[in-house]
Amino acid sequence: MPDTSTRASKTPPLPAPTGAENKAQEVQINGRPYYPDGDPDMPLMWYLRDVLRLTGTKFGCGIGACGACTVLIDGKAQRACVTPVKATLGHAVTTIEGLATDAGLHPLQRAWIEEDVAQCGYCQAGQIMAAADLLARNPNPGDDDIAKIPNLCRCGTYPRIRRAIKRAAQIAREGSQ
Amino acid sequence: MNGLSRRAFLFATATASGALLVSWKFARADQALPYRGARDEAQALGDFVRIEANGDVIIGARGCEIGQGVKTSLPMLIAEELDVGWDRVRVEQLPYGYVETDKGPSNRYGGQGAGGSDNIPSGWKDLRQAGAVARWLLVQAAAARWDIPAAQLRTQSGAVIAPDSRRLGYGELAAEAAALDLPKDPVPLKTPDQFSIIGKPTRTVDGEAIVTGRAQFGIDAYFTNTLFAVMLRCPHLDGGIENVDDADARKVPGVKDVIVIEGPNAGDPIDGVLASGVAVLADSTWAALKGRAKLKVEWTEGPWAGESTSALAAKAHELLDKNADAVPVRNDGDFAKARKQAPIHLDARYEMPFLAHATMEPPGAQISIEKDKAVLIASLQSPSGASQIISKLTGIARKDIEIRLTRSGGGFGRRLKNDFVAEATLIAKAAGKPVKLIWTREDDLQHDFFRPYGVHAMSAALDKKKKIVGWSHRCAATPRNYRDRGMTESKAPLYIGCVEPDDFPAGLVANLEKTYFPVASGMPRGWWRGPIHTFHAFAVQSFIDEIAIATKQDAVQLRLDLLGPPRRMKYEGSDQPGFDTGRLAGVLQLAADKIGWKDKRSDGHGLGIACHFTFGGYAAHAFEVSVAGSELLIHRAVCAVDVGRVVNPLGVEAQMMGGTLDGISTAMNLAITLKDGQIQQRNFSDYPLMRMAQAPQSVEVHIVESAEDPSGAGEIGVPSAAPALANAIYAATTVRVRKLPLLAELKRML
Q: In angstroms, rounded to a whole number, what is the distance separating the alpha carbons of residues B725 and B607?
């Protein structure tokens, strides 16, 4: 029967080559090293999805317009659909699957659940990654800061996204006290 | 659509009769997706409920979850009657439940499609009974164990309780309950005062899965050894393929094959693929896309090569001017005479563009076809339609086609069509391997089944007391019916999907005519969230506002006067008990109260209001806006809704918030246009959905408490939003926008 698993754990990273020079061929994804050996022009989004089966990063437009594929590259929100894999070599990528830590869900993930943001849910990983970048830069974002998140939501969850980001900021503040 | 009949459900129950333990065995072990890994000692009670020995309850969700919340709300109905704590419930998606019976094809789970906001009304009828039957079995098991008459036992939060307060958890009773025969007759349901789950704000069951990236959408499924496919489709409406040069495409590393897919003949019914095209198969989506870019295809232009939106507009206005080729829809009294005699009359025309669905997850499908069986994993709204198409294209019996349902990244009516399933089926059949078909956004916007295009010509006659005595609604539009097989053969009225015979103010104005003028077009057309209603309400609810302003009447009071005393009226096509004027008046008044309709606004701020009845539900919107330069600012957005008894208030609020934003996003910005027979929009860059910066900070949703049977909330949030916004813009600027999308029109007029 067909294997429909999408767990990244089913596709372990290739063994790390030895030698420091190979660091140039390495991309860190959710804290693990990967050595992409396919088409270097392949957008990171398709590499994550089709090769690593990290399917939390979504395909929405392919031109960087909708943000469904937003990931963090060195902590900054980027559109994985217009970022070639070769441009990520030597950098650290965080996807939605890597946002939670051993300590538990990220404050944004908790807030998103508590505010019941998602409707269809398809754009939400990208929204959360964009918000993660915002919160990292600005731990207390105002309405105007939040409104700068350009990601599209076709279901119209924007008001709950706003509430969730504010709640996450509060959770993070309380957690750091 | 799987119209659920009660019979279908009763059948499913009867089949399980005497074979409760077996009921899940309908699904072969390798098919039993929802229960993979379930513990051996877990017991199935009917088709929807399974109870683990430790008391955990697994409830099957039968609906297509497209963001409307049915994966949460339908299991709530079952859990309520089962009488378990929601925190002990785990919800799992059921597959498509096709089954063959003596009486023909049926579905063991009842209706599974998503359309017409019907999931909640259907589930209200049958899923509560499913939960109640499971509870009844557990009570019978406890009665036997204790040797106490079942009538003396009660249940609470997953336990059966004896008169002497002894308790047995459901987990302890499940095995015995599963061995019992089902009740012969329907068992009594709870009374509303006993509800502990229905009516409680309940978060989506997939919340954590979504925020951690684990939630499965159709596009997230990969068959082992799958090929990745993308298609280049003919850009001309009903065009064809003249010549394909795939030499360069085949040289792209990773490309495995190139396959030509023939579209239907021009004019034939569409129940398979929509357009001719060329599929590129590769070992990754990216390689397939690179291969597609290297294809050289010469197309034939087809019969609609000259079609343009401007020509359609000219044609629509011409038909209305000449009053030619009219299809009568409704005629009460004598409008022409009333107009002639009336001292006051008004006329206005409203133009509605084609619209795309633009689901965030584009169409696509994953399919594996073997000699005599097939497995489909896709984001769907009509699994029964998908099953029929696969069977027709492969010859595989429907009972041997397994369809696994996933969450869908939006639906909005797009997935009521299964053209993408047909494409994937044909490609997989030709390739002899499983196929993952990806649609790009460009594919999606260029090959949709669009909301119809049309012009509404409204006319009203008022007597000297400024009472509306005549109402004419003439609509020239591309028919909603686009080569639907059943519709073309049955000659169902052409106006269906463009003009609603019983829509407000039908039955409320003595002399009323509704007339339809079909505008021929090659554009594929389909159902778009709140079909007919979004198309209709903008014209009706804008025009009533124009009448109020022109005759210096209050726009709320004028509507209330028309609605008159509360009463039920006939409403064709709604299986709810008709249209209740009092409920529409109720939401209108509520929205007016909440926005402060009577309070004077500061300079430059304007209030607008509108209301509409959709699929058994009632909604009103009110906005407060201002316009600075040509920039529209929405200061407040208020929505009042009456969907009868509310199953999940958090879900209804989400649907109304989302429906409101969908309504205004679409009205402000969106149109699909045609030039030289080709669609001009390609991606979100020129089909600009509203972003957060453009959206109101919040949507104030007010839900009417009601003891009426529930109606669905997935569509009712949309139709009255756009006219309320246009009415508010008028109040702020005295500019009347009669053409959508309104921001472009507003800019032109200011």
A: 8
Which chain A residues have a beta carbon less than 8 Å from that of B693?
A: 147-148, 150
DSSP character at residue A49: I
- Which residue in B212, B403, B699 has the most chain A C-beta atoms within 10 A of its own C-beta, making it the best mutation to test that interface? B212
How far is Cα B518 from Cα B692, in angstroms, rounded to an integer?
A: 38
The ipTM (two decimal places) reads 0.93
**Which of A155, A162, A163, A166 should we substitute to test contact with B (largest number of B Cβ atoms within 10 Å)?**
A155
Alpha-carbon distance of B69 to B74, in angstroms, equals 8
Distance, in Å, from the CA atom of A73 to the CA atom of A61, rounded to the nearest integer, reads: 19
Which two three-digit tokens encode residue B611? 């209301």
Smallest CA–CA distance from B683 into chain A, residue: A61
Q: Token digits for B175?
A: 């095995």
The residues, ordered by sequence, that sit 6+ positions from B490 with a Cβ below 8 Å of its Cβ are none
B37 touches chain A (CB under 8 A): no
Q: What token pair was written down for B475?
A: 């609509």
Quick check: B733 contacting A, CB < 8 Å? no
What per-residue confidence (pLDDT) applies to B490?
54
Q: What are the tens digits of pLDDT across the range B295-308?
A: 999 999 999 999 99
Instruction: Report d(CA B711, CA B647) in Å as an integer.
Output: 10
Residue B231: C-alpha distances to residues B236, B262, B362, B425, B428 (Å): 15, 12, 13, 13, 13
Give SS3 for A39. coil
Q: Does A171 touch chain B (CB under 8 A)?
A: no
Is some CB atom of chain A closer than 8 A to the CB atom of B265? no
pLDDT of residue B14: 27
Q: Would the CB atoms of B207 and A96 count as touching at under 8 Å?
A: no
How many angstroms separate the Cα of B133 from the Cα of each of B136, B187, B722? 5, 6, 44
Secondary structure of B148-165 in HEC code, one letter for each residue: CCHHHCEEECCEEECCCC
Return the closest-CA partner of residue B682 out of B415, B499, B473, B447: B447
Are B108 and B15 within 8 A, CB to CB?
yes
pLDDT above 70 covers what percent of chain B?
93
- What token pair was written down for B520? 């021929």
Peptide bond into B505 cis (omega under 30): yes
- Round to whole Å and give the CA distance between B124 and B366: 32
Read off the pTM.
0.93
d(CA B171, CA B161): 14
Asked whether the predicted pLDDT for residue B671 surpasses 80, the reply is yes
Q: Do residue A156 and residue B695 have CB atoms under 8 angstroms apart?
A: yes
Instruction: Enter the tokens of residue A156.
Output: 């119209």
Question: Tokens 């009203």 sit at which residue?
Answer: B460
Decide if pLDDT at A1 tops 80.
Answer: no
CA distance B599 to B593: 10
Which of B432, B278, B436, B254 lies closest to B362, judged by CA? B436
Write out residues 398-437 of B within 8 Å (CB-CB) of A: 404, 407-412, 434
Q: Using CA atoms in the order B469, B475, B480, B481, what is the torsion angle rounded to 10 degrees?
A: 90
Distance of CA B597 to CAs B73, B262, B298, B638, Å? 34, 57, 59, 11
Render pLDDT for A106-157 as a digit per residue (tens, 0 to 9). 999 999 999 999 999 999 999 999 999 999 999 999 999 999 999 999 999 9
